[in-house]
Amino acid sequence: ACGGLPALRGSRADLARLREGGRGSTGRSHAVRHVLVAGQAALALVLLIGSGLLLRSAWELRHVDPGYDTRDILTFQIAPHRPELNDAVSYARFNLAFLDRLAALPGVRSAGIVENVPIDEATARIRVRTETTEAGSDGVPVNVTFSAGDYFRTMGIALKAGRTFGADDHGVTRGNILVSESAARLLWPGRDPLGQRLQRSAGSPWETVVGVVGDVLQDGLQSEVQPLVYFPLVGPAPDGGRARSSPGFALRTTVPAESLVPAVRALVRELAPEAPLYRVHTMQELAERSMQQVDFSLLTLGLAALLALVLGAVGLYAVLSQVVAERTREIGVRMALGARAGQVRAMVVGQGFRVVAIGMLVGLGAALAATRVLGSLLYGVVAHDLATFLVMTFVMGAVGLFASWLPAWRASRLDPVESLRRE
Predict the structure, then answer these.
(1) How wide is the angle at C-alpha 40 spanned by C-alphas 37 and 44, nearest 5°?
(2) 68-104: string of b/e by CB count within 10 Å (b at 16+)?
(3) Given CA atoms 279, 285, 287, 292 in this order, what sign does their dihedral have?
(4) 18-27, 55-64, 65-74: segment of lowest average pLDDT
(5) Which of 40, 274, 308, 372 has its CA 20 to 30 A from that of 255?
(6) Which residues pair with 145 in a beta bridge?
């Protein structure tokens, strides 16, 4: 299409141009070229702003504190199926015994259990009641999970107050629980959460808070902090019901985390040969996976922005070069009459930059509307971030000035006598 339009225009008989020796160009053709260049500048600016927003998001995500460590941690799950594992207590005992064997493996610094491994799994959401919950109320929604062993130290989750779970907490009778900081603020605002009690449902036993731990980004690095309550490794009911199946194990290692996978597989074959081993990941791998969507979008949009920027610069350079060629006689006359080289350069640069400026104004308006679709990919930056808009507008303007300066520099070096002689 871009090649066909000038070909069609050039194929039409134009006696006026023939009579003038082919010099000059119609105002209409100038306008069409300027519109195309302005449109290219607008598109390039929209893509540049989108890329800038994603780049800032990627930077923020790389430096976000998720509330846990991602280095030197191996996570996995197993699913044992045995007739004797028919209630909460037996299932918890099996997992705790297996955890002790894992902790004894060479290269393991500490080990813990959690029902939902951060980033890899979301937690369940239930409504709980506190001693101040009004009668007839459904309670307050919080996220819940189950943990055991040295889980919090293994994951690097800070203990803010109280203690974590001990071996005596994993029994049939419900008793002690841990809450995250956000859960403590939600359930007992302005009060010390230690010693406070809650119920999972009306009529169920009361459970007492014995510790407060730091908040974590459970659903990925781009997620928001959710109030989280940790229960001991027992089943959903204290009456012998089956325990939560397939908990996740986390190992903090003194060696590369992935190098422990063969030892873990061997231990599973020894203690639970019927149990599949699955969801084997390092926390670093899960963190990188959480970044994949942003990284891929940044790569594709960044390449498109770079291509649009280059094409816009080349297009502007080509148009201004053509304008200079068409105005060779005019420029020669101006310089013969005393125009300085700097004045010629300013004239050509001004003509080019006016086109780019119009395109940038259109691009800014389009970017304000278009960047809203990036909302789900952005983290730590708003879609209408002023700094990003200003920086990318400056980049577009600088490229436009450079593309305008090259033809202007060539025009200012014309020999007026030689240009008039050629005409």
Answers:
(1) 140
(2) bbbebbbbbbbebeeeebebbbbbbebbeebbeebbe
(3) negative
(4) 18-27
(5) 274
(6) 230
33 to 28, 312, 324: CA distances (angstroms): 9, 12, 14
Distance CA 342, CA 354 (A): 18
CA 20 to chain CA centroid, Å, is 59
What burial class does residue 126 get, using C-beta atoms within 10 Å of its C-beta: 0-12 exposed, 13-18 middle, 19+ buried? Answer: middle
CA 168 to chain centre: 42
Place of tokens 């030689």: 418
- Could you please report the per-residue DSSP string of 312-330? HHHHHHHHHHHHHHHTHHH
Q: In 129-174, which residue ranges form alpha helices assigned H by DSSP?
A: 151-155
How far is it, in rounded angstroms, from Cα 337 to Cα 348? 18
Average pLDDT in the 355-362 region? Answer: 88
* Predicted confidence (pLDDT) per residue in 225-235, tens digit: 999 999 988 64
- Hey, what are 410's tokens? 């060539």
Amino acid at 85: L
User: Which amino acid, 299?
Assistant: L
Cβ pair 145, 248 in contact under 8 A: no
- The DSSP secondary structure of 202-246, one letter per residue, reads TTSPPEEEEEEE----TT-TTSPP--EEEE-S--SSSSSPPPPSS
Contacts of 193 (CB under 8 A, 6+ apart): 161, 179, 184, 187, 209, 212
Read out DSSP for 30-87?
HHHHHHHHHHHHHHHHHHHHHHHHHHHHHHHHHT---SS--SSEEEEEE----TT--S
Q: Output the pTM of the full model.
A: 0.72
